[in-house]
Amino acid sequence: MQSTYFAIAFLAGLIPALFWVWFWLREDSRKPEPLFLIAISFIAGMAVVPMALPLQKLALELYSGANIIVVWVIVEELLKYAVALTLVFWNRDVDEPIDMVIYLIVVALGFAALENALFIFNPLVVGDYFNSALTGSFRFMGATLLHVLASGTVGACLALAYYRSKVTQVLAGTLGLSIAIVLHALFNFFIMERSGETILTVFLFVWMGIIILFLLFEKIKLLERNHNLQQQAS
Question: How does pLDDT run across 22-43, given as a tens digit for each residue?
Fold first, then answer.
């Protein structure tokens, strides 16, 4: 029976994440990314979850209070960034600034898919179907987009430094990662209060961040167009 519940939870985490993948890929419709690399990125993001869990369990033994939340966030954001660097960013198909954002978002959505499935599974397996459905809904509009915002911020920083020196790119990635960690940690701190007003405020904060990410998408596209024009003129 537990396997059936996990299959349901897995699909409940997977399908919304795939919807968001489709949604964000439309931002790069002019030059679509190869599906195999998108699939690798998504699966790699899912693989981060079992990589992160033992490290987060270790953090429980070493830290307490707010420190645990910060360490957990650092583990997740570092691993998402690391798998993108290791498995995706060296590929020759990653050949324009916007790709940095797209692939990091896909990695984040892979992570969110499996993480959401685990959160949905816990109440589902004890027969608490209402809380299971409620958890899935909240995570679809909250935590999932938070992962998109955090990893998308790293990607945006890398994209804005795409045509600059390697040193600048490393600094940009470090800056983006630092911002992602702060955003993620703030989300976790405030969401733990669990009051309706606080949750709504935090969700609004995430949604405004997503709007800013959309604006950065347009700026990155303009950066690429200007670079191409300069290349043609030279």
Answer: 999 988 777 888 999 999 999 9
- For residue 63, the surrounding DSSP H or E stretch is none
Coil, strand or helix at 16: helix
Residues 6+ apart with CB under 8 A from 84: 41, 44, 103, 104, 107, 151
* Amino acid letter, residue 152: G
Q: Cα–Cα distance between 100 and 24 in angstroms, integer? A: 13
Domain boundaries, the chain: 2-233
Per-residue pLDDT reduced to its tens digit, 207-233: 999 999 999 999 998 988 888 888 777
Percent of the chain with pLDDT over 70: 96
| Those residues with Cβ within 8 angstroms of residue 220's Cβ, 6 or more apart along the chain or in another chain | 97, 98, 101, 156, 159, 160
- Report yes or no: 158 and 170 within 8 Å, Cβ to Cβ: no
From the list 91, 97, 87, the residue with the least C-alpha distance to 40 is 87
- Give the number of C-alpha atoms closer than 13 A to the C-alpha of residue 47, restricted to the C-beta side: 11
**pLDDT beyond 60 at 195:** no
Tens digits of per-residue pLDDT, 153-162? 999 999 999 9
Could you give the angle at the alpha carbon of 70 between the alpha carbons of 69 and 72, nearest 5°? 65
